[in-house]
Amino acid sequence: MIELPELPEVETVLRSLKPKVLNRKINRVTVINAKTIKKPDATAFSCCLEGQRIRDINRHGKYLLFKLSSSLVLVVHLRMTGRLIYKDSSVPPDRYTCVIFQLDEGKELHFQDVRKFGTMYLISCDELDSFPPLRILGPDALDPQLTLDLFIKRLEKRHGQVKGVLLNQSFIAGIGNIYANEILWTARIHPERWVDSLQSWEQERLYQAVREVLSTAVKLRGTSLRDYVDGEGNPGEYQHHRKVHGREGKPCPLCGHPIIRIKQAGRSTYYCQFCQN
DNA sequence: CAGGTAGCCTGTTAGC
DNA sequence: TGCTAACAGGCTACCT
Q1: In the structure, what pLDDT confidence band is assigned to residue A173 with cuts at 50, 70 and 90?
Q2: Residue of A3, A5, A108, A139 marked catalytic
Q3: Domain tally for chain A?
Q4: Same domain for A195 and A260?
Q5: How many angstroms separate the CA of A118 from the C1' of C7?
Q6: Domain for residue A41, yes or no?
Q7: A50 an active-site residue?
């Protein structure tokens, strides 16, 4: 079973890396897998980054944003199997290393990615709001400004099944398949429900579940099923708290009935047919 | 224009 | 046992 970095995992990577790389200088960048770099080309990417200092790290949904000197922003998406690992330069890169950032003081930041789906962009900070992958994102799912009112307003503009809406990053950003399943179980809403049919108390339960599930997962440093580790290579703990995801046939923690698995838009959905209506 | 889906990738696993 | 095929999955691009 493969895990994927969603909001809590990306937030954990950010928190573990930030104290280590803040205000550190990038001395040299080696691109091993050119396809990781989407913009500009790999040569320009390395060239522009050399000599930059990392001034801040932010996150929007599943995107990591490294703010650099000279008004540049390094945008990183880990997709399924991407990792950012901080290590000593004496440790050789592993076979999945796609990009190496050599920092000062003999340290390196390695981007490793088994499936090579992860992406990086280097853009100027005034491009941030208009930059296509970021422009379409809704508010971050844990953004304090995402109030219940705003959540419901955005929800009521949506159509289709509630699971699909949760996964749509233009609705709110950061939720992937694992947490969508966990959120819907917590909200006791059937994943195939049409969003238009949700009653106001169900909309509110959904909002509360989004916040509760994601903030708990952040506290537990994310879910580690196989690939995900934080910036120091440590796994998270949320996998022990999962109620439905990856638990087909196992008892629902609330009612004991077996968890059902179905496919929605090609992705596995896990739910309890008794608790979720 | 909204909704559906192929393609990107490779390690793991189910099935023969 | 050993091989193959299906599967996992976020996002973009393309299609209807």
Answers
A1: very high
A2: A5
A3: 2
A4: yes
A5: 19
A6: yes
A7: no
Is there a single domain that holds both residue A116 and residue A17? yes
Residue A20 annotated in active site:
no
- pTM, whole model, 2 decimals? 0.93
- Check whether A2 has a pLDDT greater than 50: no
Report if CB A148 to strand B is under 7 Å. no
pLDDT of A268 above 60: yes
Extended beta strands in A52-140, E state: 54-60, 63-68, 72-77, 82-88, 97-103, 107-113, 119-124
A222 and A169 within one domain: yes
| Any domain includes A89 | yes
- In the structure, what pLDDT confidence band is assigned to residue A109 with cuts at 50, 70 and 90? very high
**Boundary residue ending a domain (A74, A104, A135):** A135
Q: Which domain holds residue A11?
A: 7-135
Closest C-alpha to A152, from A208, A217, A213: A208
**Mean pLDDT of chain A, nearest integer:** 90
Q: Is the CB of A174 under 7 A from strand C?
A: no
The answer to whether A35 CB is within 7 Å of strand B is yes
Close Cβ partners of A115 (under 8 Å, ≥ 6 residues apart): A79, A80, A81
